[in-house]
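Problem: given the chain below (196 residues), write out its structure.
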Amino acid sequence: MGTRDTEQPPEHWAGAESLDPTPVWKQYALVALLAFVGLIVVLVVAVTALAPSFATPPALVFGDRLVLATSDLPAVGAAPKLVGAPLVDDARSFFLTQPEKGTVLALRAHWQDDCRVFAAGPSPSPGYASACAGTSTPARFDTHGAALTPNARGLDQYLVSVSGDRVIVNLSRVIESSARTVAPVPTGIPQPQQTP
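Solution.
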């Protein structure tokens, strides 16, 4: 018996077989398996991220990214290029444009519910206009897709990047335009007079 109250009698003691070490090879196998799975995940993510670099333009690659050649990009100030079928479906069609040097935009060809967008041409002003079912007056937009019509929302865009000889349009990243509102003119308040 022990000399302290907290000690257990010898029949409760663990035998000599309990002192055998835990098999270390099982721990090594688990660590190796987890490392292998981690490397596979990193490899899959890297390949999908680099898919636009491997694809031959025009191509739609993993992650809804459309890869186009820079030769498909309109010149600065030129008419926009409508990109649609067979590359993308009609709901995701867009105008590829370069309104100024270094600014590349992919403006969606659909505006609101039943409204289709078309290039308005150079006169009277370059930009875009909408054709909506049930309305006779189209909404107008400038070359950057901002609304020129009061209280109208601008055109949505897709995220675009230019990398070397490729233009990559990310169809899963829509940049939504905000509504443009015009402040009402207050009535009954005297307006300041301009002096000649």
